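Box 4.2: Ligand-aware structure prediction
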Amino acid sequence: MRITKYRQEIIDLLDSSEEALSAAEMHASLPHINLVTIYRNLESFVKVGTVTKLNLGGDEARFEIQHEPHHHAICNTCNKVIHFTVDDEELIREFALPGFSIKNIEVTLHGTCADLH
Ligand SMILES: [Zn+2]
Ligand SMILES: [Zn+2]
């Protein structure tokens, strides 16, 4: 009963967040849920595909609910993450490797954002 409630709280938090969150950030928003429990739930969500785990090069993995599959651009200066979509079909054609069948493409761009820093 409580486990189901926690799962829902984690999903609701991710769903209402504009940004991808790390487990530690989720724990800060949901302090009554043990960090290990948050991790465990996240991993199970990732496994079934409800939640996407992003390894954006920081210390911690970030998690988000992707209503539409998309890619990420990260600012080297302020760590801002920009979520964007491109024509994946075209990318798949572009990256065609002989003897390899592409299922999906996840692009992470590193650069500088337009903010003044
Ligand atoms: Zn920036
Ligand atoms: Zn995203």
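In the box above, the bound molecule is zinc ion. Residues 99 and 111 are 32 Å apart (CA to CA).
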